[in-house]
Structure formats: structure tokens, C-alpha cells
Amino acid sequence: MKILVPVKRVVDYNVTVRVKADGSGVETANVKMSMNPFDEIANEEAIRLKEKGAASEVVAVTIGEAKAQETLRTAMAMGADRALHVETQARTDTELQPLAVAKLLQALVEREQPDLVIMGKQAIDDDSNQTGQMLAALLGWPQATFASKIELVEGGLEVTREVDAGLEKLWVKLPAIVTVDLRLNEPRYASLPNIMKAKKKPIDKLTPEELGVDTAPRLTYVKVEEPPKRQAGVKVADVPALLDKLKSEAGVI
Amino acid sequence: MAEILVVAEHDNAKLDKATLHGVTAAAALGTVTLLVAGEGAAAVAEAAAKVAGVAKVVHVDDAAYAEPVAENLASLVVAMADGYDGFVVGASTFGKNLMPRVAALLDLAQISDIVEVVGPKSFKRYIYAGNALATVETRDAKLALTVRTTAFPAAATEGGSASVETVQAVAPSDLVKFLGREVSASERPELTSARVVVSGGRGMGSGENFVIVEALADQLGAAVGASRAAVDAGYVPNDYQVGQTGKIVAPELYVAVGISGAIQHLAGMKDSKVIVAINKDEEAPIFQVADYGLVGDLFTIVPQLTEALKASKAAS
Ligand SMILES: Cc1cc2nc3c(=O)[nH]c(=O)nc-3n(C[C@H](O)[C@H](O)[C@H](O)COP(=O)(O)OP(=O)(O)OC[C@H]3O[C@@H](n4cnc5c(N)ncnc54)[C@H](O)[C@@H]3O)c2cc1C
Ligand SMILES: Nc1ncnc2c1ncn2[C@@H]1O[C@H](COP(=O)(O)O)[C@@H](O)[C@H]1O
User: Fold this and answer.
1) pLDDT tens digit string along B135-150?
2) Is the peptide bond before A98 cis (omega within 30 degrees of 0)?
3) A230–B289 CB contact, under 8 Å
4) Chain A residue nearest residue B11, CA to CA
5) How many whole angstroms from its chain centre is CA B187?
6) Which of residues 109-168 of A touch B (CB under 8 A)?
7) Which atom of ligand 2 is the closest one to the Cα of A36?
8) Domain containing residue A32
9) Is the full-model pTM beyond 0.95?
10) How large is the ipTM?
11) Total domain count for chain A?
């Protein structure tokens, strides 16, 4: 079984994001970037399937600027075998949008013929939560989103999904798309020898043109602004003081 | 006037509240048709016809829709798509699972988790865990939207008198099978629509200790939520998680107990009307958004608060 893992380079989740004063977007210059946390979990799961002998090859893929190759190196240092880089100058938080990403991934799936695509449920920059479902639709494949457990069964997968009411279990026939949630696994750290080894693993470079995909944005980000700030309140001394505030000032109890 | 199709979320017995919020957003865009696809869900279709602002209900009764399987629902919506200018669903896990599949099949860009309708093609939504608010305009001919339920009031469940039309099912997919669900049963109000929410974090120390939070929730008639750290540690089930990648809540009162206030948590609760934080670390970032902060040990403060509420109820 061959597994494709799309990994996105995003502003690190620990960075306090700043909105540019001209309202054009979020500041990403000289900001720490990392692999989208959900994609680390997806990559970890793919590698575990390989280590168990269930998968033969794990191929990481990213779409983004030249520096996005760092994210592919991380994926390979964790254990992916090789990588694909679709290079674009478009900003991946706003200009390169989920439908275009899904179309690029569709073209790559048609080339690579994987049996399974495991990816994040959500990129923490655009917070779209769309790409996996869109890719499944374009390929006519089944989708198992928000996975917290994946089990291989004859001809398919049984996937436990985190939903608003609790958990749901789904069987999907392979080939399929799985998007992962936080509780699926804890991604490993790459060891130094593996980081060195990853430098020698191959990255194939491609362009959207070569893949025949129009990536022009369908959505215009007219304005990006700082959200209204909450006023910090007061510290109260004790429980009676808190109750008094909640009753007489806030009127909520 | 634009024709907008809202996909109803339900369990074949009851219309989910997320749908009522979706209807309000959709009504700002055009005439609302509510799609009720289910098995034996006639009661839901009847209830849907009474929702204020709904002009028409389309009811599809088939075993293919007994469970919310995205593949089957998406095929149905796509088969109906010609008559509509927009597709709307609540930004619940149901809606997030379904709408991108519909959008891609129709070659539409989706706008996720909208918090405001600015114009017929223009919407506001948060990006970067609520750190930035974007105004987004689509160039596509049709709309595909998921709606943040806390940002739009629920449509009234009475007052409407929509016509009900039945439509044929579309052949279901054999690539997917629904196997079952585990629902966390609770007598408490539902987290995303509760008037009061009490959430516990890593500071709770264990699942057993959550009884302290539950006792306070009982006094306040509140739902119980949690931070990711508390869920990851196994103190409470996954559906308790409030935040960027969990549930979005905006109650009148949110009480954060032993929660530091990471941006990913704030993204899910900072639109609450009144926020109370109880934390032993006076530097905890949660205090920057809390209206009322109480610095100290939660194992002392929370039981005191519970007792005081009990006493004041007994007195009145
Ligand atoms: C991709 C991604 C998505 C995420 N999504 C979410 C999300 O949706 N929701 C979410 O909540 N988090 C999310 N997180 C995690 C987030 O970054 C924080 O790690 C998490 O919110 C921390 O939870 P916490 O506040 O309970 O724990 P901590 O940060 O460890 O805070 C515990 C707090 O308890 C206090 N405390 C300890 N003992 C006591 C005591 N006896 N009395 C009083 N106070 C005490 C401490 O002072 C501390 O402030 C996400 C992270 C990532 C990377
Ligand atoms: N530019 C990209 N390169 C690689 N993978 C991506 C890219 N954008 C999105 N993805 C994948 O799609 C998932 C969901 O992203 P989104 O729909 O934008 O929230 C991510 O977790 C990634 O796995």
C-alpha cells in the first residue's frame, strides 16, 4: 500500500500572529514556520502503517514557495520515503485556496496512484477544514474525516471519527481519504541521524502548470483586520466578591 | 431573490439547533429551502416546515440517509443543485464534513465558518485561530457556506408555514458504510447552545476531579466543557473540547477553571458575554480576556463557589 501525505508549511502555532497595518493580510516575514500540527499527526500515522508492514511507501507532498521544502525535509526526517514539491509564489494562507490545493493533489494522486491519502483536518492558518473532503469529491473516493483511530480491515479501513456528539465509526473502501484529528497519535521528534538521512532523500519538483491546474483564487480577501479586543477585566479578592459582581454588575446569575 | 438551500442536521427525530442558526444566515441571502434527508424523519420535516423564515421544505425519505454519510448527502444536494444559488449548513462536524464535498463537486470555492453576511457575495470569517478577521468575497456564481452558529441567532421554531415537497433519493455509495456511534450521554444542556458553560483544564489534574466542575455546573444549570489538554489527558471525552479545533461557544457566562488561556482555547470562547477565570497563576493569559479573575487554588475556590451558590438559592 502506498500512502500520500499532504503537509503544509504554516506559521508556528506558538507565534502570536500580527495583522499588517494596511489590512492586506497577516505578517509572515521573519516569523517561525512549521509543519501544520495536524499534518504531523497524519505523517506519523502513515509512518506507523509502514513500520507495521501495512504500507510500502510514504510520499510527502507540499504546495508552496521554495522554503516549503523545509517542511518536506521534516516529513522525511520523521520517516517519509520521498517527497513532491509543487512550487508556487502564491501566499498559501489566502491566495492558494483549498479547491486549488485539492485539484493539485488530485493531479498528483493520478500520477502516483496511492491507495490512501492521509492529511490534516485543518490548516491552522486559513482554518478552512475543506481540502480533504474536496479531494475525496474530485477523485470520487470515500472520505473519513476527523479520525481518532484507523484500523486496516479486508479491502478497507475502519475509522473512528471525532464528532460533536461523541464518536462515530465508518468503514471506507480503499482507495480513500482520511483527515486526522488531534487524538490519533503523538507525532515523534526526528532524531539527528534521521535528519541527516532525510537530506539525501529525493524531492521531485513540479509546477501547477505541469499538472495542468488553474490555481487562480476564487475568493478575494478584501480586508484582513485585527478582531475587536476584549477589555481585560478585574481580579476579585474572593468568592463572595465574585458572586456579588456576577449578580449586581454582570447580571448573569 | 436568490434561492438558498440549507441542509438540515437531525437524528431522524429532532432538528439540530445548528440548522436554526444556519437558516438565519441563509435568510439574509435569499429565499430559504430546507432539505431534510433522513429515514423515517417525517417529524423532522414537519418541524422544519414550522421554522420561521423557511419557505419550502424538501423531504427525502430513504435508508441511504438514515445516517449522516457525506458521500450520499453530497450526491443528493448535487442532484438538486440546479435550482439553487447557494448552499448553507451549520459549521458543526456534520456541516464541515459535508459542505466541502458538495462545493468541490459543483466546482465552487467554500467559505468556512462565516460570522457575518456583509453582502450577497461577501462574508466575514476568522483566520489564524481568531487572531485575524477576514472579509472574503467569492467570484463564483454560487455560494457554498458553513455558518458559525454562535454568530447568528437561532431562527424561531414556530411561525413558519412552509410547503413540504418530497424528492427521490439518489443511489447511495457502496464505498462507505456507517458502523455506529458512541454518544456521551448527559443530562446537561448542550455545550454549544448552553446559557452557562463551566470548562476545566489541565489544572483539574484528573478525570475524577471533574466532579468539582460538574457540581458547579449543576448549580449554574451549565454545560461542561474542557481544554484540549484535559481531553488529551483523558479526563473527559473529545466532544467537550472548546477551541480553534473543537467547539465554538458563546454563552452568557463562561467559567474557565484551571485553564491557562492558550490562543487555541480563546478562539473557541472569547465571544462569551461574561468570562470568569479561576487559576492559581496570576500571570495566566486567560486573565487578559476574563471580566472577573480569581487567583487561587481551584480545589478550594470552586467548591466554595458551589456552596455559596447553593446557599444563596436556599435563601431566596
Ligand atoms: C493544532 C492545535 C490545535 C489546538 N486546538 C485546541 C483547542 O481547540 N482547544 C484548546 O483548548 N486547546 C487547543 N490546543 C492546545 C493549546 O495550545 C493548549 O495547549 C491548551 O489549551 C492548554 O490547555 P490548559 O489550559 O488546560 O493547560 P495548561 O496550559 O497546562 O494550563 C493549566 C492551567 O491550570 C492552572 N492550574 C494548575 N493547577 C491549578 C490549581 N490547583 N488551581 C488553579 N489553577 C491551576 C495553571 O496555572 C495553568 O494556567 C491546540 C493546539 C494545537 C497545536
Ligand atoms: N499548500 C498545501 N500543501 C500541502 N498540503 C496542504 C496545503 N494546503 C492544505 N493542505 C492539506 O489540507 C489539509 C486541510 O487544510 P485546509 O482545508 O486548508 O484547512 C491540511 O492539513 C493539509 O494536509
Assistant:
1) 999 999 999 999 999 9
2) no
3) yes
4) A165
5) 18
6) 121-122, 124-138, 141-146, 148, 158, 161-168
7) 21
8) 2-250
9) yes
10) 0.98
11) 1
